[in-house]
Amino acid sequence: MSSGEASGYRGRFAPSPSGPLHDGSLLAAMASYLDARAQGGRWLLRIEDIDTPRCAAGADTLIMQQLQTLGMQWDEPPVWQSKRLPNYEAAFARLQAQGLIYGCACTRRMLSDGPYPGTCRHGLPPGRTARAWRLRVPQGTVHFVDRWQGPQSQDVAGEVGDFILHRADGMWAYQFVVVVDDGLQGITDIVRGNDLLDSTARQRVLAQLLGYEPPRVMHVPLLCDRTGRKLSKQNHAPALDVSHPLDTLQRAWRNLGFAAFPASTIQEFWARAVPLWAARHCPDRQ
Ligand SMILES: [Zn+2]
Question: Of 34, 37, 84, 187, whose Cβ has the fewest other Cβ atoms within 10 Å?
Fold first, then answer.
Protein backbone atom coordinates (compact mmCIF):
# COMPACT_ATOMS: atom_id res chain seq x y z
CA MET A 1 0.00 0.00 0.00
CA SER A 2 2.81 2.40 0.81
CA SER A 3 6.56 2.37 0.81
CA GLY A 4 6.67 3.32 4.50
CA GLU A 5 9.21 0.65 5.31
CA ALA A 6 11.52 2.09 2.69
CA SER A 7 11.39 5.70 3.85
CA GLY A 8 11.14 4.96 7.56
CA TYR A 9 8.67 7.83 7.95
CA ARG A 10 5.96 7.16 10.54
CA GLY A 11 3.30 9.79 11.05
CA ARG A 12 0.03 9.78 12.95
CA PHE A 13 -3.28 11.46 13.43
CA ALA A 14 -4.34 11.42 17.07
CA PRO A 15 -7.86 12.79 17.62
CA SER A 16 -9.56 12.86 20.98
CA PRO A 17 -12.99 11.26 20.58
CA SER A 18 -14.97 14.04 22.23
CA GLY A 19 -17.11 14.23 19.09
CA PRO A 20 -16.94 13.74 15.31
CA LEU A 21 -14.35 15.55 13.20
CA HIS A 22 -15.01 19.21 12.38
CA ASP A 23 -13.38 21.53 9.83
CA GLY A 24 -10.51 22.25 12.24
CA SER A 25 -9.59 18.68 13.10
CA LEU A 26 -9.91 17.67 9.45
CA LEU A 27 -7.17 20.16 8.64
CA ALA A 28 -4.77 18.41 11.02
CA ALA A 29 -5.81 15.00 9.69
CA MET A 30 -5.34 16.06 6.08
CA ALA A 31 -1.96 17.70 6.64
CA SER A 32 -0.56 14.68 8.49
CA TYR A 33 -1.97 12.30 5.86
CA LEU A 34 -0.56 14.32 2.94
CA ASP A 35 2.84 14.54 4.58
CA ALA A 36 3.00 10.79 5.23
CA ARG A 37 1.96 9.98 1.67
CA ALA A 38 4.28 12.62 0.17
CA GLN A 39 7.22 11.06 2.00
CA GLY A 40 6.36 7.45 1.21
CA GLY A 41 5.59 6.90 4.87
CA ARG A 42 3.08 5.13 7.05
CA TRP A 43 0.11 6.92 8.59
CA LEU A 44 -1.22 5.72 11.93
CA LEU A 45 -4.43 6.48 13.76
CA ARG A 46 -4.40 6.82 17.52
CA ILE A 47 -7.56 7.52 19.50
CA GLU A 48 -6.63 9.74 22.43
CA ASP A 49 -9.37 8.66 24.79
CA ILE A 50 -7.40 8.91 28.02
CA ASP A 51 -9.40 11.89 29.26
CA THR A 52 -12.48 9.71 29.71
CA PRO A 53 -14.98 12.31 30.98
CA ARG A 54 -14.57 14.26 27.73
CA CYS A 55 -15.00 11.24 25.46
CA ALA A 56 -18.33 10.76 23.71
CA ALA A 57 -19.59 7.21 23.18
CA GLY A 58 -19.24 6.18 19.55
CA ALA A 59 -17.20 9.23 18.51
CA ASP A 60 -14.20 7.05 17.67
CA THR A 61 -16.29 5.02 15.21
CA LEU A 62 -17.68 8.23 13.68
CA ILE A 63 -14.19 9.68 13.22
CA MET A 64 -13.00 6.50 11.51
CA GLN A 65 -16.02 6.52 9.19
CA GLN A 66 -15.42 10.18 8.31
CA LEU A 67 -11.74 9.52 7.51
CA GLN A 68 -12.57 6.52 5.35
CA THR A 69 -15.32 8.37 3.49
CA LEU A 70 -12.72 11.02 2.65
CA GLY A 71 -10.27 8.39 1.42
CA MET A 72 -7.82 8.62 4.33
CA GLN A 73 -6.90 5.06 5.19
CA TRP A 74 -4.51 4.25 8.06
CA ASP A 75 -1.74 1.71 7.52
CA GLU A 76 -1.80 -0.17 10.85
CA PRO A 77 -4.59 -1.13 13.26
CA PRO A 78 -5.70 1.95 15.25
CA VAL A 79 -4.75 2.09 18.92
CA TRP A 80 -6.78 3.42 21.84
CA GLN A 81 -4.91 5.11 24.67
CA SER A 82 -7.39 3.73 27.19
CA LYS A 83 -6.10 0.23 26.37
CA ARG A 84 -2.46 1.18 26.84
CA LEU A 85 -2.37 2.04 30.55
CA PRO A 86 0.42 -0.47 31.40
CA ASN A 87 2.70 1.39 28.94
CA TYR A 88 2.20 4.65 30.80
CA GLU A 89 2.74 3.02 34.19
CA ALA A 90 6.00 1.46 32.97
CA ALA A 91 7.30 4.73 31.52
CA PHE A 92 6.36 6.57 34.71
CA ALA A 93 8.22 3.96 36.79
CA ARG A 94 11.32 4.47 34.63
CA LEU A 95 11.29 8.22 35.30
CA GLN A 96 10.59 7.59 38.97
CA ALA A 97 13.57 5.21 39.22
CA GLN A 98 15.77 8.02 37.89
CA GLY A 99 14.51 10.35 40.65
CA LEU A 100 12.75 12.54 38.08
CA ILE A 101 9.27 12.46 39.63
CA TYR A 102 7.97 14.02 42.81
CA GLY A 103 4.61 14.31 44.50
CA CYS A 104 2.87 17.69 44.68
CA ALA A 105 0.31 18.65 47.31
CA CYS A 106 -0.57 22.06 45.86
CA THR A 107 -4.18 22.78 44.99
CA ARG A 108 -5.11 24.93 42.03
CA ARG A 109 -6.00 27.75 44.44
CA MET A 110 -2.46 27.76 45.84
CA LEU A 111 -0.88 28.27 42.40
CA SER A 112 -0.84 31.33 40.15
CA ASP A 113 -1.09 31.15 36.36
CA GLY A 114 2.68 31.45 35.95
CA PRO A 115 5.29 28.67 36.01
CA TYR A 116 5.05 26.15 38.85
CA PRO A 117 7.28 27.67 41.56
CA GLY A 118 8.66 24.31 42.72
CA THR A 119 6.89 24.42 46.08
CA CYS A 120 7.01 20.62 46.58
CA ARG A 121 10.29 19.97 44.75
CA HIS A 122 12.23 19.25 47.92
CA GLY A 123 9.49 17.39 49.78
CA LEU A 124 5.87 17.85 50.73
CA PRO A 125 4.92 20.34 53.44
CA PRO A 126 4.36 18.54 56.78
CA GLY A 127 1.02 16.77 57.03
CA ARG A 128 0.25 17.02 53.30
CA THR A 129 -0.12 14.13 50.86
CA ALA A 130 0.64 14.09 47.16
CA ARG A 131 -2.29 14.91 44.86
CA ALA A 132 -0.42 15.01 41.57
CA TRP A 133 3.00 13.89 40.31
CA ARG A 134 5.37 16.28 38.60
CA LEU A 135 8.45 15.95 36.41
CA ARG A 136 11.68 17.44 37.73
CA VAL A 137 12.44 19.48 34.59
CA PRO A 138 16.15 19.83 33.81
CA GLN A 139 17.63 23.32 33.36
CA GLY A 140 18.33 24.49 29.83
CA THR A 141 16.60 25.83 26.75
CA VAL A 142 14.98 23.48 24.24
CA HIS A 143 15.61 24.40 20.59
CA PHE A 144 13.91 22.87 17.56
CA VAL A 145 12.90 23.83 14.05
CA ASP A 146 9.24 23.56 13.19
CA ARG A 147 8.73 22.80 9.50
CA TRP A 148 5.93 25.38 9.23
CA GLN A 149 6.59 27.86 12.06
CA GLY A 150 10.40 28.00 11.82
CA PRO A 151 12.99 27.97 14.65
CA GLN A 152 11.55 27.69 18.16
CA SER A 153 13.00 27.75 21.64
CA GLN A 154 11.65 27.50 25.14
CA ASP A 155 13.23 27.44 28.58
CA VAL A 156 10.83 24.83 29.96
CA ALA A 157 12.21 24.91 33.52
CA GLY A 158 11.93 28.70 33.67
CA GLU A 159 8.80 29.35 31.61
CA VAL A 160 6.67 26.33 32.56
CA GLY A 161 8.38 24.78 35.55
CA ASP A 162 8.00 21.20 36.74
CA PHE A 163 4.88 20.07 34.93
CA ILE A 164 2.33 17.43 35.87
CA LEU A 165 2.49 13.88 34.49
CA HIS A 166 -0.18 12.34 36.67
CA ARG A 167 -3.08 14.55 37.60
CA ALA A 168 -4.88 15.03 40.92
CA ASP A 169 -8.00 13.45 39.37
CA GLY A 170 -6.02 10.23 38.84
CA MET A 171 -5.59 10.60 35.08
CA TRP A 172 -2.40 10.73 33.06
CA ALA A 173 -1.54 14.12 31.62
CA TYR A 174 -1.80 14.60 27.86
CA GLN A 175 1.85 15.68 27.61
CA PHE A 176 3.01 12.42 29.11
CA VAL A 177 0.89 9.85 27.26
CA VAL A 178 1.45 11.46 23.87
CA VAL A 179 5.22 11.20 24.30
CA VAL A 180 5.05 7.58 25.48
CA ASP A 181 2.82 6.63 22.55
CA ASP A 182 4.88 8.48 19.95
CA GLY A 183 8.00 6.81 21.34
CA LEU A 184 6.57 3.28 21.47
CA GLN A 185 4.95 3.63 18.04
CA GLY A 186 8.22 4.86 16.52
CA ILE A 187 6.65 8.09 15.26
CA THR A 188 9.23 10.08 13.27
CA ASP A 189 7.04 13.00 12.19
CA ILE A 190 4.25 14.91 13.91
CA VAL A 191 2.00 17.14 11.83
CA ARG A 192 -0.77 18.78 13.88
CA GLY A 193 -2.51 22.07 14.68
CA ASN A 194 -0.47 24.97 15.99
CA ASP A 195 -2.41 25.06 19.26
CA LEU A 196 0.04 22.32 20.27
CA LEU A 197 3.19 24.23 19.31
CA ASP A 198 3.46 25.42 22.89
CA SER A 199 3.47 21.80 24.15
CA THR A 200 6.32 20.72 21.91
CA ALA A 201 9.26 21.78 24.07
CA ARG A 202 7.80 19.94 27.09
CA GLN A 203 7.27 16.86 24.95
CA ARG A 204 10.86 17.00 23.71
CA VAL A 205 12.15 17.20 27.29
CA LEU A 206 10.10 14.12 28.17
CA ALA A 207 11.12 12.22 25.03
CA GLN A 208 14.78 12.78 25.80
CA LEU A 209 14.40 11.65 29.42
CA LEU A 210 12.59 8.50 28.23
CA GLY A 211 15.28 7.78 25.64
CA TYR A 212 13.17 8.44 22.54
CA GLU A 213 14.35 10.35 19.49
CA PRO A 214 12.13 13.49 19.41
CA PRO A 215 10.05 13.47 16.19
CA ARG A 216 10.29 16.18 13.54
CA VAL A 217 7.36 18.56 13.90
CA MET A 218 5.13 20.70 11.71
CA HIS A 219 2.35 22.81 13.25
CA VAL A 220 -0.23 23.95 10.71
CA PRO A 221 -2.28 27.14 11.24
CA LEU A 222 -5.63 26.48 12.82
CA LEU A 223 -9.00 27.54 11.60
CA CYS A 224 -10.71 30.22 13.64
CA ASP A 225 -14.37 31.15 13.84
CA ARG A 226 -15.63 34.67 13.08
CA THR A 227 -14.65 35.88 16.53
CA GLY A 228 -11.08 34.61 16.16
CA ARG A 229 -11.46 31.61 18.45
CA LYS A 230 -9.96 28.26 17.47
CA LEU A 231 -12.54 25.95 15.91
CA SER A 232 -12.94 23.13 18.40
CA LYS A 233 -15.47 20.79 19.88
CA GLN A 234 -15.34 22.84 23.08
CA ASN A 235 -16.40 25.87 21.03
CA HIS A 236 -19.19 23.84 19.43
CA ALA A 237 -17.73 23.64 15.94
CA PRO A 238 -20.27 21.80 13.78
CA ALA A 239 -19.56 18.17 12.87
CA LEU A 240 -17.99 17.70 9.49
CA ASP A 241 -20.50 16.93 6.76
CA VAL A 242 -19.00 14.22 4.54
CA SER A 243 -22.05 13.75 2.32
CA HIS A 244 -20.07 15.56 -0.43
CA PRO A 245 -16.56 14.25 0.24
CA LEU A 246 -14.89 15.99 -2.71
CA ASP A 247 -16.21 19.40 -1.66
CA THR A 248 -15.07 18.75 1.90
CA LEU A 249 -11.58 17.79 0.73
CA GLN A 250 -11.30 20.82 -1.55
CA ARG A 251 -12.36 23.15 1.26
CA ALA A 252 -9.75 21.71 3.65
CA TRP A 253 -7.14 21.85 0.87
CA ARG A 254 -7.81 25.57 0.36
CA ASN A 255 -7.65 26.08 4.13
CA LEU A 256 -4.14 24.63 3.98
CA GLY A 257 -3.23 27.47 1.64
CA PHE A 258 -3.43 25.70 -1.72
CA ALA A 259 -5.41 26.58 -4.83
CA ALA A 260 -8.31 24.30 -5.74
CA PHE A 261 -7.82 22.01 -8.74
CA PRO A 262 -10.29 19.92 -10.69
CA ALA A 263 -10.83 16.35 -9.51
CA SER A 264 -13.79 14.11 -10.25
CA THR A 265 -13.14 11.39 -7.63
CA ILE A 266 -11.55 11.35 -4.18
CA GLN A 267 -8.85 9.04 -5.57
CA GLU A 268 -8.02 11.65 -8.19
CA PHE A 269 -8.02 14.36 -5.53
CA TRP A 270 -5.39 12.56 -3.46
CA ALA A 271 -3.34 11.56 -6.49
CA ARG A 272 -3.02 15.24 -7.44
CA ALA A 273 -2.78 16.70 -3.92
CA VAL A 274 0.08 14.54 -2.64
CA PRO A 275 2.72 15.74 -5.18
CA LEU A 276 1.60 19.36 -4.69
CA TRP A 277 2.12 18.99 -0.93
CA ALA A 278 5.50 17.34 -1.55
CA ALA A 279 6.62 20.16 -3.83
CA ARG A 280 5.77 22.82 -1.25
CA HIS A 281 6.60 21.11 2.05
CA CYS A 282 9.07 18.31 1.39
CA PRO A 283 11.95 19.95 -0.51
CA ASP A 284 14.37 17.19 0.52
CA ARG A 285 12.22 14.64 -1.30
CA GLN A 286 12.40 16.38 -4.68
ZN1 LIG B 1 3.25 21.41 44.88
Answer: 84
> What's the CA-to-centroid distance between 177 and ligand 1, angstroms?
21
Q: What is the pLDDT of residue 2?
A: 46
Pairing between strand 141-146 and 150-155? antiparallel
**Could you tell me which residues come within 8 angstroms of residue 143 by beta carbon, excluding any fewer than 6 positions away?**
151, 152, 153
For residue range 127-166, list pLDDT tens digits in order: 999 999 999 999 999 999 999 999 999 999 999 999 999 9
> Is 233 a known active-site residue?
yes
Instruction: Decide: pTM greater than 0.85.
Output: yes
- Please list all protein residues whose beta carbon sits less than 5 angstroms from ligand 1, which is an ion: 104, 106, 119-120
Task: Please state whether beta strands 79-80 and 42-47 pair in parallel, antiparallel, or not at all (unpaired).
Answer: parallel
The pLDDT assigned to 54 comes to 82
Given 201, 233, 250, 281, the catalytic residue: 233
| CA of 115 relative to ligand 1 center, distance in Å | 12
Worst-scoring range by mean pLDDT, 51-60, 61-70, 181-190?
51-60
Expressed in angstroms and rounded, the spacing between residue 167 Cα and the centre of ligand 1 is 12
Residue 161 amino acid letter: G
The predicted-structure confidence for 63-92, as pLDDT tens digits, reads as follows 999 999 999 999 999 999 999 999 999 999
* Ligand 1 center from residue 192 Cα (angstroms): 31
Please name the residues in contact with 73: beta carbons below 8 A apart, sequence gap of 6 or more: 1, 67
pLDDT band at 12 (very low <50, low <70, confident <90, very high): very high
Q: Residue 205 C-alpha to ligand 1 middle, in angstroms? A: 20
Contact 193, 220 (CB under 8 A): yes
